[in-house]
């Protein structure tokens, strides 16, 4: 059967990569060996998604994102432009541990996340944040180092209000 994926000819796909259905990958992105990408995932341009990464279904990754080897990303996650998910606190060490992003999390543009950290289910990381410890589920964190500021419920209410407010 013909593939339902839309993958730019300029994307590099490594060996033994497993791709689901209806995936879109835009220009000049890199997918490393053994990485697994679920259904309906969208990956923007100029992303580096390294080896042994798992990305579950319906996750959206904006341009210029770096995802280090061994990171695990859940379902319905949003990763904003230029976010960096790291895997080595003392490079170049011989031990690597990825970042774990649970379902429905949002990672703001240009945030940087330390190796081994878990971004909890439904949590939100503000743009430009430095995350050095686990983020509890259902919370919004931001800053450097990031701290819990309010709840995901508050964030959802702010989003609804934003969507309702006319631009001008
Ligand atoms: C975290 C976030 C949701 C907070 O939004 P908000 O609740 O509307 O926050 P406000 O703009 O009302 O700011 C409240 C306070 O937090 C501070 N603040 C807000 N976002 C911040 C951030 N990312 N880092 C540091 N401080 C931040 C503000 O300076 C303000 O501080 P003050 O009270 O001392 O003046 C938002 O700033 C953000 O980062 N969204 C993600 C955007 C993104 O990455 N989009 C990618 C798609 S293109």
Question: Can I get a quick summary?
Answer:
Helices cover 8% and strands 30% of the residues. By secondary structure, it is mainly beta. The N and C termini lie far apart (49 Å).
Account of the 3D structure:
With 168 residues, the protein is mostly beta strands. It has a single domain (6-164), classed as 3 Solenoid (UDP N-Acetylglucosamine Acyltransferase, domain 1). It has one helix and 22 strands. The protein has one helix spanning 152-164; strands spanning 6-7, 12-13, 18-19, 24-25, 30-31, 36-37, 42-43, 48-49, 54-55, 60-61, 66-67, 72-73, 78-79, 84-85, 100-101, 106-107, 112-113, 118-119, 124-125, 130-131, 139-143, 146-151. The chain has a nine-stranded mixed sheet with strand order 1-4-7-10-13-16-19-21-22. The protein is globular and about 45 Å long. The model has no long low-confidence stretch (mean pLDDT 97).
Keywords:
168 residues; mainly beta; UDP N-Acetylglucosamine Acyltransferase, domain 1; 9-stranded mixed sheet; 7-stranded parallel sheet; 1 helix; 22 strands; binds coenzyme A
Number of β-strand runs = 22
Helix proportion range:
under 10%
The assigned CATH architecture is 3 Solenoid
The radius of gyration computed from the alpha-carbon positions, rounded to a whole number of angstroms, is 16 Å
Question: What's the arrangement of secondary structure elements?
Answer:
Elements: E1 6-7, E2 12-13, E3 18-19, E4 24-25, E5 30-31, E6 36-37, E7 42-43, E8 48-49, E9 54-55, E10 60-61, E11 66-67, E12 72-73, E13 78-79, E14 84-85, E15 100-101, E16 106-107, E17 112-113, E18 118-119, E19 124-125, E20 130-131, E21 139-143, E22 146-151, H1 152-164
Parallel strand pairs: 1-4, 2-5, 3-6, 4-7, 5-8, 6-9, 7-10, 8-11, 9-12, 10-13, 11-14, 12-15, 13-16, 14-17, 15-18, 16-19, 17-20, 19-21
Antiparallel strand pairs: 21-22
